[in-house]
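Late entry, evening session. Most of the bench is empty. Finally got around to the prediction I had been postponing all week. Sequence below, unchanged from the version circulated by S.P.
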Amino acid sequence: MRDRVYLDWNATTPLRPEARAAMAAAFDVSGNPSSVHSEGRAARKLIEDARGAVAAAVGADPRSVVFTSGGTEANALALTPGLRRGGRGPAQRLIVSAIEHPSVLAGGRFAQGAIEIAPVLPSGVIDLERLAAALASGPPALVSVMRANNETGAIQPIPEVAALVHEAGGILHVDAVQAFLKIPINIKALGADILTVSAHKIGGPKGVGAAVAADGLEGLHAQVRGGGQEQGRRAGTENVAGIAGFGAAVRAAAGSMDVDAARMKALQARLESGLRDHRDTVIFSDTAPRLPNTTLVSALGLKAETAVIGFDLEGIAVSSGSACSSGKVQPSHVLQAMKADPALLLGAIRLSLGWDSTEADIDRCLKAWRKLSGVLGKAHAIGLERF
């Protein structure tokens, strides 16, 4: 039995052996990828091979892939006023769903006064009727809706969202960071005009991401300016080793996606069945389609900060929400948008699985959960308000 159980894969993943090997090899390539000599061409080839891998994984043209420093920068690049495609007018305002990642809620290059929030249903899925009303109430909009939520795992109905957005003359950005290579992602099938992905959620290195534009998208202007790298859409010498690792991780993850998803789905079912043994347990978004690896759970009387420490002392890494919000003593904005029971907000624990997760990991987690549940039961019995 391994010493530690890692159940925080949505925060970040271990580096895949294929990515590690690709990066080690890339460190020995000395050329600048913008140079035309042999050394520079060798570095350029590593980047273009990775670009092709990312493009193939989402059904896009390699020329549409812009490498960035991560998902946050990719989202900021995508949220550009004036984006247009297919004869539609330039986007003049931004509509984002209430459950988006903070890097999307920040609005990119849109002024705060031009940003509107689209509500979600209690299931954690976007309210399509309210979105349609928002689209009809003003000029063409850039709409940003994630493919799957990083906290609940709820999969959003992106093709339906795309139909509404395009009918209203808008542009659709899809943050696919958490869904990428956990479920199939195809930019054309989704109807997205631009989507964003990240390396470290799929076994690649931290600090590398990409924005992928659909054919014909115009107005994607660089926010990092200087040289002409990335076809003039993101200046700065590329992170050759990181991008090479990203490409290798994409190829490895794509090759095992279906098998990994089926195995994680079975583990998720085992986990959630055991969690529900505690009578006050609530699993959020369990009525919606979800990622096969993500469970957001709470129970009456549970305090997330204490529970995370308790799990850690049992040798298990879990999260109290998205990693970007860890350490902040405040309820999840996702659960608030879902209008979750206030008594459950401060106790939400995210358990997320990966390709290396096992039944033994699940059983250790459930053992720790039963121990925690027992403490909660005693606390209720003696009238303590919170554990």
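Two things to note before I forget:
Residues 379-387 have pLDDT under 50 and may be disordered.
The radius of gyration is 21 Å.
Will write this up properly tomorrow.
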